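Chain A, query sequence.
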Amino acid sequence: MTAMPKWADAILVPLISLLIAFVISGLVILAIGEDPVAAMKLMITGALGSTYGWGYTLYYATNFIFTGLAVSVAFQAGLFNIGGEGQATLGGLGVALACLFVPWPHWSLALIGAAGMAALFGAAWAAIPAYLQAKRGSHVVITTIMFNYIAAALMIYVLVTVLRPAGAMDTASARFDPALKLPRLGDILGLVGIPFNNRNPANISLLIAFVACVGVWLLMWRTRLGYQLRAFGKSEKASVYAGINPVRITMYAMLISGGLSGMMAINTVMGEAQRLLLNSVEGAGFIGIAVALMGRSHPVGVLLAAILFGFLYQGGAELALWTTIPRELIIVIQALVILFTGAMDNMVRKPVESLFLLLRKGKA
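Chain A, predicted structure.
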């Protein structure tokens, strides 16, 4: 039996870490001559105070759910996939090819086809580092981060020489057929009588992200493959002794992870931009690492952490718009959240464990 109950590990420790990060962020805001209380109120109002703000918060959160789930699946198998940025970039290419060159009769069929292509392209991009790790011993951290840059270069080439319409100046593909536009979140909620501002990019991709959370939970905790992935992540030697094939598990984990990263492009490419842009991922692949860390690589935790980072993104945009606080300060706040919930997790965990141990001894 551990000194700390599961609920404290899952909720209390991240919450305390988050509070410390916000307190230090407030001190930084105070140091530059701004009111931290007013700044926090503006962030909350801008991100959560209206359905318009909620729409943007959930739009960003959708991206982070996909990339956070992708990182968490790899984490569970003991792999550190930091190539989500490149895998999501290739996923966007898959979405664009599906929407530009297939005459879909309805957006729902196009959504299925685009999601399949996004997952396929993302998984294919992750398969190369996975093979190099499984067969050649090349560390997946090095190969996945290198493949991010290769994916960016490949995207520039494809957009400039293949997908850019003749005579166009911007580095982007042609726009998709308007009939393939995904329903906004306001349209969906309106069907059940819930009013929601539609002047934001939140769309049906959010529901797909929720389904992905449930699917990852079922995979990891209700299937034989999920058990093998978690066992391999806990102890490679013990799992091999038990008959688990390390090459197969490495490939499966990275393929699933890459597929989830690729599916992020449904939200940005098909749901929002309606065309493939050069930087459609916008750093969501790296934020997914922080989301997975804060969410303890569990789908419920990933969902909550993704909403938190969506709040930081939208709240930060409001700060930059209505105050003199620079937009870069939000990056500092995000970094502090990552620092205390990830790298300095033991700074909070150890005192909390000691407290619960004292309480248990007191009861005894």
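The first helix runs from residue 6 to 31. The mean pLDDT is 92.
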